[in-house]
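STRUCTURE REQUEST FORM
Protein name: 3-dehydroquinate synthase
Source organism: Tenacibaculum singaporense
Requested output: structure tokens
Priority: standard
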Amino acid sequence: MTTINAATYPIHFEEKGYNELTSLVSERNYSSVFILVDDNTLDCCYPRFIQLFATDKPIEVIQIDAGEVHKNIETCMEVWNVMTELGADRKSLLITLGGGVITDLGGFVASTFKRGIDFVNIPTTLLSMVDASVGGKTGVDLGVLKNQIGVFANPELIIIDSEYLHTVTPREIRSGTAEIIKYGMTHDIKLFNEIKDNDKLNIVDLIHRSIEIKNEVVLEDPKEQGVRKVLNWGHTIGHGVESYFLENPKKEALTHGEAIAIGMVCEAYLSAKVLEFPEDKVSEVKDTIIKIYGKVVLSEGDFQPILELMKHDKKNIGGEINFVLLNDYEDFKINSKASDDLIKESLQFYNL
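Status: completed
Returned output:
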């Protein structure tokens, strides 16, 4: 797969990426290299990485606990302290090796340590390959509120190595597939149709196009002042659902993609009510999502708490919830509004 050039960094694919990383470390003459991993990627991904990365620079591995619940400022403080104890300086490099939690948190750690050191993202899950690691967003959660603390900061390069997908569960593959569905509905319906119509699909074949789409949007609007908000299709309600299931001890936590899938069904319903999204396509979205992800039980008692969490969404202005909605596939409208009652109605529609 050909390299994709973002604003200030390249996105390399497969083993070429490791050759470029080796050259980068040599050319920049970094004083030391730190690898940020979690419990899973240390065991499953680090052995492949260290075989393919050649350097004579000192390497230190920093391990954190796996999971969204650890994507917080407390974990950042632990990493900053370890880096300090190990002698990291402004000429150090941080390599993130993991899923979205690792690339988001690691990028934030690097971009704030000593006012910013270089970092490289090596995403190991489908979700982080097609979304989290690309685009320069870094950050952590504030309690259960998603990505409330962070900065825009670009890596020096990204390596997309599909071999790491052999280390993740089918559930995690489905989670990442939700972001590809998002790109399909908003930018390239062929992606959505491939997923909808092909039970034997090799999802790796869709990664390059998905990253192309995200990169094109980010190049046009790097700091989400306008059109980049389209990347939040399904996320306004989806993040509310994800946060609610994360904080409620009676609920089993959802993956990011499972929550976003629910959000896309609800926001397709809103699109039909607020804009002109065709009813038959609302049904198509719902049927496809249920086929892939199954049905999550939402009770009417869940609706108001989800709505309250949605009011903390980063796109909101003046307390009003802002949506990305669809007139049709590949035809979206940012900064759309919907009443609280209509939002609850959309959650009920998902339940039917």
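Reviewer notes: The domain at 4-167 is CATH 3.40.50.1970 (Rossmann fold). DSSP finds 14 helices and eleven strands in the chain.
Form closed.
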